[in-house]
Amino acid sequence: MDLVPALQEPLKQPLKSVLGPATAKVMAEHLGLHTVGDLLHHYPRRYEERGQLTHLADLPMDEHVTVVAQVADARLHTFASAKAPRGKGQRLEVTITDGSGRLQLVFFGNGVHKPHKELLPGTRAMFAGKVSVFNRRLQLAHPAYELLQGDSAEAVETWAGALIPIYPATAKLESWKIGKAVQTVLPSAQEALDPLPDTLRSGRGLVPLPEALHKIHRPHTKADIADARARLKWDEAFVLQVALARRRHADTLLPAVPRRPKPDGILTAFDDRLPFTLTEGQQKVSREIFDDLATAHPMHRLLQGEVGSGKTMVALRAMLAVVDAGGQAAMLAPTEVLAQQHHRSVTEMMGELAEGGMLGGAEHSTKVVLLTGSMGMAARRQALLHLATGEAGIVIGTHALIEDKVQFHDLGLVVVDEQHRFGVEQRDALRGKGKQPPHLLVMTATPIPRTVAMTVFGDLETSVLDQLPAGRSPIASHVVPAADKPHFLARAWERVREEVESGHQAYVVCPRIGDEDDDPKKAGRKKSPEDEAEKRPPLAVLDVAGQLGRGPLQGLEVEVLHGRMHPDDKDAVMRRFAAGETDVLVATTVIEVGVNVPNATAMVIMDADRFGVSQLHQLRGRVGRGSAPGLCLLVSEMPEASAARQRLNAVASTLDGFELSRIDLEQRREGDVLGQAQSGARSSLRVLAVIEDEEVIAEARQEAAALVAADPELERLPGLRTALDALVDEEREQYLEKG
Description:
The chain is built from 26 helices and 21 strands. The strands form 4 sheets. A 7-stranded parallel sheet has the order 11-12-10-13-14-9-15, sandwiched between helices. Strands 16-21-20-17-19-18 form a 6-stranded parallel sheet, with helices on both faces. Helix 7 (209-217) crosses helix 8, helix 8 (222-253) packs across helix 25 (718-727) and helix 10 (280-293) packs parallel to helix 11. The longest helix has 32 residues, at 222-253. The chain is globular, with a radius of gyration of 30 Å.
C-alpha cells in the first residue's frame, strides 16, 4: 500500500539519507521501516491532549511506555557505593504526576546533571522508558524525556497541534523522535497514489489518501483523526479484499477432477453400518462438501467445529466419496500420537470396509494405511507401495507424507487436521502431489486468529459444525487460584481421587517436560515478564508426576507422556491409558488434539496461565467425551487482577470455541493476516481490527468482488495495482494462494 514511486525512497542511502543514518538504521532493524512510505504508514497508536494527562495509575509492568506529566518535585541524594566510596555517588529522584497517580523517575551518576537543571517542579514533559518496580513502587529508571514548554520556533511548531501523536516505539527510538522523522517526510504524502477508485471514494465520502496521511500524523481535532482512520481502514480492507477476490477468481480457473460418489459404493456401505444417525449439522456440512467435490475446480473449505462435534466423521465420509470416485484421500495430522489415533478410529469405524484386498474384506473395501516418520523400513516400504499402486484409498500420516519419496496413484482430496499446527508450505507440498490440484479440506476445533481473520475476510469457504452429537456430556471448568487459596489446590487433588474412585481417569497437564534444563541453549533464553515476575520456571511433567505419586495421589497408577519419548513408548502409554490400566496421565500438550479416551473425566492444567486461550479450550476437549460429565480445573498462581487470570476466567465461563476465539483475537490482535508472523511490528493491518470492523470488511468484500469480476487484471486502476504489489509481494501472494 505504501510503495508508490514517490514514497519508495529508502530512509537510509549510501550518499544522502532522508533521516540521520543512525535513526534510519534503528527504524529498519527494530520497526521494519525502510522507505518514506513505510514511515508514513507507521501510524500513531494514540494521541495525548494538551489539557489531559495520561493515567499513570494504569501503567503496565515491564512495558516501554510514553507518558505526558508534570514534575511535582525533584531531590538530589548523595550516597556511598563501591564506585563512590566517599559518599560522592549521586541519585536524582523526580516525582511526576498526572492527576491520576504519581510515578518516580530515577537518574544516577553523571546522568543526573542535565535532568537536575531541566526537570524543575511545574515542568511538563513527555517521558519514555520501561516500567519497573523498586521498593514496591513503580518507577522509570533513566527515562528519555522531551520538555513540552520550549519557546524556540521548532518547539512551538512541533507542539503547536492540540493533539500529540504517540507512536509505537522501541527502547532504542522514542515516540517523539519518530514524530520528528514523520514531520521530515510528511510533504511526500502529497505524491501518494490513491488505491481506491474515485467512484468508491466519493460514494462513501472518504477523504483522499494524501489528506488522510496528513490528518493521521498531524491532526488538529478529533474529527481529523476519525476522518483519517475511516479512510485508512477502507484502504486496508479493500486492498486486502481485492487480493483475496483475485485469488478466488484464479482458483475458479484452476482445473480439478470432479469426484462424485457412486450411488451404491463404499460411502453407502459405510453409512449403512453406522450405529447412529448423523446430526443435522453433519448432514448439512457433508452436502456442502460433496457439492464442492463434484465441481471441476479445487475445493478450498474450512471445517470449523467444536471439540467433539464429529468433524472426523464428516472428513471420513468426504474421503470415502473420493475413494468411490476412483481417487485417493490423504489425512494430515500434526503429531504421531494423533496420526495413530486417527488411523485406529478410522479403521474401527470402517470395519471390514478398511480391509481391501484381504480375506474377509467387504465388497467395496479399500486399504487404509498409516505413514509416520518412526515406522520400520519394511512397513514403510509396504505403505508406499500401496499408495503408488492406488490399492490404498486412504492414507493417514504426519509430515512424513510430504517427503519426495511418497507417490500417489491419484490424489483427489487432502484433509488437514488442526490447521494451526501445520505450516502452509507443508500443506502445499502435499497438494502438489496430485496430477491436478486436489481438493482441500482444513479442519480446526478452535479458530485461531489468522483463521478467524481469514474467515471474516472470506478467503476460505467455511462450514460450521455447532451441534454436539447425542450422548456428549457438558464440561464444568473452574479456576484454581493456587497462590491466594492453597486449600483450593488440595481440593483439586481430592476431586481427582474421587473421579478415579468412581471408576474414571484423569489428565494432569504441565507446560514443560522437565529434562530440558541441561540444554545450555535453553538455559540462556530470555525469560518472559511473567517468568520474571514469578521467579520460577513453569511446572514440569517429570517433577509433578513424582510429587503427585508420593503425595496427594499416592496409591494411584500415575504415568507420564511427553513429546521426547520414543514413539513406541508413547503409543504404549496411550494404549494403557485408553484400556483403563492407568488412573492419571501427567502429560504435556501432546494430548492437546485428537486423543480420545471417553472414560477420562477430569483434567487439571498446571500453570494454566502459560497456555493460550485456544490451547486451553483444546485441552479441555479431551474430557467429557463419554456419558459422564467432565471437569476441567485451571490452576494458576497469577494474581486476580492480572490479564492472565482474566483470560482464564474467560475460558472457564464459556464452552463456546467461537466465542473464545473472538476473545483470543481481541487480546492478541490479528497479527499479520497475510504473512506468517502472527505478531511483529510490521503487520499488514495497522488500523483495521478484524472483530470491530466486520462491517467495513463485509462492504469492502462486496466492492472488491464486483471490481475483480469486471476487471480481473485491474488495468483501469494503476494506483490499486501498485498498492497490491506492495501489500501482496510475491512471498505473500504465494502464502495467500496456499492459505
